[in-house]
Amino acid sequence: MGTRMEVAQLESRMNAEDYRKLQNLFLDFSGASRSLSRIQFIDLAWSSVGHGSKEEYGFLFDSVVLSQERSGLLLDSDTSKEKECIDWGGLCSFLLLELSNKFKNSKTVSAPCWKPPRTLTCPHRDPVQKVLYLQSSGQYLTVSKGGNVGLRDVEDMSLLHTHRLQNSTVAPKDLWVTDVVLLQNVDKSQIAVGFTSKEVCFYDFVCEKTFSCKCKLQGLNFTPWCLDYWVDPCNPDQAVLTIGDIGGWVSALYFTSAQIFLFERFSLRTDSDSADIILWDDLAKGKHRSCYTVTHQAHAPGWVRKVRYLGSLEAFVSCSIAPQSSMVIGWRDKESTSLRITSYSTKGGVWDVDFHIGLGLLATAGVDHHVLLWNPYVTSEPVCALGGHTSPVIAVCFLQTKQQLLSYSKDKVLCLWDVSSQLCTHRLAGVFPNIQGDTHPFLFLNEECQHLVLSFNSLLLLLESKREEKKTCSHEHPVTCVLYNSRFRQVVSSDSASSVIFWLTDTGQKVKQFHRCHGDAEISTMALDGTQTRLFTAGADGEVKVWDFNGRCLHRMNAGLGRAVRISQVLLLKRSILVMGWERNLTVFRLHSFLQSTVEPCEWKGGLEHRGAVLCAAFQPPQTLVTGSYHGEIIVWNSSTEKALRKLWPHDEGEDCKKQQEDSDSCDAITRLFFIPGRASVTTAGAADLVSCGGSGTVRLWSTQRGRLVGQFTAHEGELGSIVMAVSPCGEYLTTADRKGTVKIWDVKYYCLTPGEGVNKELPKLLSSFHPHLDHVTHLEMCLHGDKLLLLSASSDCSLALSYLPGETVGLFGQSDPWCLERPGTPQPQQETERDQSDRGRQKNTGLEGMRSPLASSETNVNQGHDSPAERGQLWIKDQKMAKRDRRETKVVTRGTLFS
């Protein structure tokens, strides 16, 4: 009989085409969905897929059925396997669940990288009982068994000051501190200290050099052994001091005006050095209106080893080494003054307990060598047991910012656990001091400073983890699009959280940011007008918005007609704007329609020519428009008449009809189209002038004049899904990128320039391949910045990268150390000609020349310092000539222009 491992191997051996075959099995002759029995599924899958054994498909079927039973999808779990059926949705749900579990289990858990441990010697010889972190002053406060207090600097752990606590109740030689807590919400810095003299004393330390006892809580029945102090984060006046004693009792003091005073004073002090005496009986009888008490005997006759008040649960949790009452929770009941008690038993009792607020789990340090994780509401058994220690576990501590847990055992072994996988990810031993005698060290964790302090009698051991290098993120969310603004010499990027950020190209620093441009809707793509002063953003809400660079929304284009649609591209033509991505037709906006703030679409005269949704388009002057669809066909249009001229197919049309699939990862889907600059003069000879890419990792080059495929090559593995690409302004370089973050630079200067009889399938010269990103590259842009050819790449790993061509990464936008591009020099004559032609072509084609913003001149001054005086003069003369031409052309346009 096989195992689940065999099924996992079968699933890993199957590719996308195999799963398409499986999907077709769940369709009847009419195309409707159907379910399959076990015998049907095994026979059909085995014969259709072509590999794998029948036994493996049987195990796959049984696993799907079992997952459906667990999720309650099968109403009758007693039905025999012969009558059980699965459908395509059930199979997909099971595969997604398996993939999710694989991903969770394969994630690397970050283990701390410890610096060399430091041993800190205290000036006294008695054991250290507690370490507290004073956040206001950035210091550690240590208190020993004999009442010796030390203040240490948090940076270098140097000893700043020492003091000895005074308690007039007992002689100095008999003074024994059991526990200490910090009262962080009290106006004056104050600590509460438990003593074996059956009292809790409250000390002020305003100047941090003198500790004066202000009041004493006396009359306790048993010695207080452990303390806890909780403050309501929403109301600092509300606080709870919890006391666990050696008689097994848990007592709590509820303070209602802690920021003003803890206890009421009924008599004046006769001595300025004397402390107010607060009797427990007076508190229990309600004589102090600012404080009331709650008690319950949780662990009699055992000692309470640790006590905590959990504000999120409104409950007290305590532990003891008594097996029958290893952990006890006292739940507050608003309708009663008494507590509802639940007990949890273990084999040997519990030394320590901690609570993770985010996970809602309790962890116990067991005498039986186990760390147990508990659901507070389930008393019968723990959620899981973490086994790995070989001696009693005496301390546990959750990392609240992570799903991790620290545990320490008597044999001086420290373990770090990943709670989600229940695995020990780090084990530390052999670094702790060898102290003679029965020591009971405590563990103190400061996540903010990444300090872990352990006590060994009078010694303190500091473990400091090296800070993780923070990953540079240009955006807080995945980056969806990037553009280069040649007018302002800036980079513009958008993300899935509807933010737009402007960056300095020369340094990578942020200039400004527009938040929530489309509310909560993702920005899928962007575009710039010919003047580079207007920004178009397309949101998943179905709208395209037009912005100036001051963050004002000038127009709202209702592309989706009120529906939420996925817009893949916005293309600006001379007299219209095309929006596409979700339907077979093009959505067009005429420039004469931009009279109001909200613009409605017009009818595209060309009608329906594509068989699938139009995903991308490209334009070449004077009137050649090409569009690519999900099903792989490319249509060449006359942009003036909006009539289709010819169709381009990657296969023969008859073959293509068989290949088309109905999933979003169609291998022939076209996601990017670009005309190759500089090839307009050779297209009549059949040279390739158009390049496309899409879902199979394949790049194809086309001749739009002859309507044929000239060349194609596989740039990236087809199993990686769709790729993106960009073409350099000079037409020499082609850049492609995939879902793994790999970017490749190809030399296409002479590629498919001389067409042959068949399709050229040779690879062009690969100039470089590099990984500027860790995840899916979503958009590429190549631009000429001064005399430098640059590559901009956006990724779903929230980063935006700048690279030199042909492939040297400069850095990530927003990184802590700004880069410094060399001062843009005077372009070479060839580059200057190419840039001028590119600029003129862009402005001429968009038809938006005469609609410059009056704000543009003031904004461009920011970046004019990059040019020499001679260049600025030449650019100014050229701008003046263009402005005159613009004014002449705009006389035929109505006064209600697009950007009025």
From TrEMBL:
SMART domains: WD40. Residues 855-866 have a biased composition (Polar residues). Residues 818-900 are annotated as: Disordered. Keywords: Repeat, WD repeat. It comes from Oreochromis aureus. WD repeats lie at residues 386-427, 523-550, 607-647, 713-749. This is WD repeat domain 49. InterPro entries: WD-EF-hand_domain (IPR051242), WD40/YVTN_repeat-like_dom_sf (IPR015943), WD40_repeat_CS (IPR019775), WD40_repeat_dom_sf (IPR036322), WD40_rpt (IPR001680). Residues 832-842, 878-892 have a biased composition (Basic and acidic residues). The keyword Repeat applies.
